[in-house]
Design a protein that fits this description.
The chain is an alpha/beta fold. The chain contains 9 helices and 16 strands. The protein is about 25% helix and about 20% strand. The strands form 3 sheets. An 8-stranded mixed beta sheet has the order 6-16-15-10-11-12-13-9. Strand 4, helix 4 and strand 5 form a beta-alpha-beta unit.
Length: about 350
């Protein structure tokens, strides 16, 4: 099935907010309002759903969350769905989503990362709908560093747009902004220099293919199931290969190593021309670092492995469109990801 790109958003379009995984606690509601207002200030109508409760690890029952997400993604008046953030157990929605209805509906942008990978990557693989692995709603008020774009830039881009992103060369070394204390914060703390790192050897890298991927801790639980058949997607949409990206949230290096081994054995990386690995603040494990965990699991692929890409849990954020055609360049003085919405 061909990749389906939702039509670009225009002023006055509706953007829906729901929490398919974790909701928003009371002490963080002020930040939610700031984020919602940021989208409104861009000229969009914002609709906030019922599944937003932040008192537990999920915002509502699995049936309610699945129902609300499906309704939003199939409502022709809603052009984008942007959860506040991820969570832990969005996987309980997988068997409850109406995949036939999602496949038949006009495509709508779904934006997010972390636990949202559990839903976005299967949505692209099973329905052909392009999705945006990028900053969540609560991150939207941050000013975007030079060289990168926001999810709002992507969902307004015209058909066949060419989106080029280059890392700013600085990232957050540790910590996070406390939205309960500073709900209005709009400036990233980028206090540590750093560039992309080739893990598998030396030399320049230039690789192409359709982009697909997400968060390791989430996708590993779908590996080998019909919901994560990356090889079938490659055969149909990118016969010359894929650009696969992964990122670790907070599991230690031993867990990430096991998870990546399992994903490789399940065929997740079979058609990869290169693998992009997000920068992580997740801990090392004694004799095994996060970089070494990746190389241990994915070295047998014999393809370029580029680490410390800004596509993970460490700010800033480099949004990636699942399904877009990509071209990555990694060379001294030039790190660049080009995405074509075609």
């Amino acid at each position: 099935m061909p990749v389906r790109y939702p039509r670009p958003l225009s002023p006055g379009d509706r953007v829906a907010v729901t929490s398919p995984s974790s909701g928003v606690a009371k002490e963080l509601r002020a930040r939610l309002e700031v984020a919602v207002q940021e989208v409104r200030d861009r000229g969009y109508e914002v609709v906030v759903g019922r599944c937003m409760d932040g008192s537990g690890h999920v915002s509502a029952s699995a049936a309610d969350r699945a129902g609300e997400l499906t309704a939003m993604l199939t409502d022709p008046s809603i052009r984008a769905v942007v959860p506040p953030w991820g969570g832990e157990t969005a996987i309980d929605l997988i068997p409850l989503l109406d995949w036939d209805r999602l496949r038949e509906a006009e495509p709508t942008w779904l934006v997010g990362f972390s636990d949202l990978s559990t839903l976005m990557t299967p949505l692209t693989l099973l329905t052909g709908t392009a999705t945006v692995h990028g900053n969540n709603l609560m991150d939207t008020p941050y000013r975007v560093p030079e060289g990168l774009v926001s999810w709002l830039d992507i969902v307004t881009a015209p058909p066949r747009a060419r989106i080029v992103q280059r890392p700013p060369g600085r990232h957050r070394g540790a910590g996070f902004d406390d939205f309960a204390v500073f709900p209005e914060t709009r400036e990233f703390t980028l206090d540590t220099p750093g560039s992309w790192t080739r893990l598998d050897g030396g030399g320049d890298v230039v690789a192409e293919g359709r982009l697909i991927g997400g968060c390791v801790e989430m996708l590993c639980n779908l590996a080998g199931t019909p919901y994560l058949d990356v090889s079938a997607f490659a055969r149909e949409e990118s016969p010359d290969g894929l650009l696969v990206y992964v990122e670790a949230a907070d599991n230690d290096a031993l867990a990430i190593c096991r998870n990546l081994h399992g994903m490789r054995l399940a065929g997740f990386f079979d058609r990869a021309n290169a693998v992009l690995v997000g920068r992580t603040s997740a801990p090392d494990s004694g004799s095994l670092s996060q970089h070494e965990a990746v190389l241990d699991a994915l070295g047998p692929l014999k393809v370029p492995i580029i680490a410390d890409v800004e596509c993970g849990h460490v700010p800033p954020y480099l949004p990636i469109v699942n399904g877009a055609y990509g071209r990555v360049v990694c060379a001294p003085g030039r790190n660049e990801l080009t995405q074509i919405l075609d």
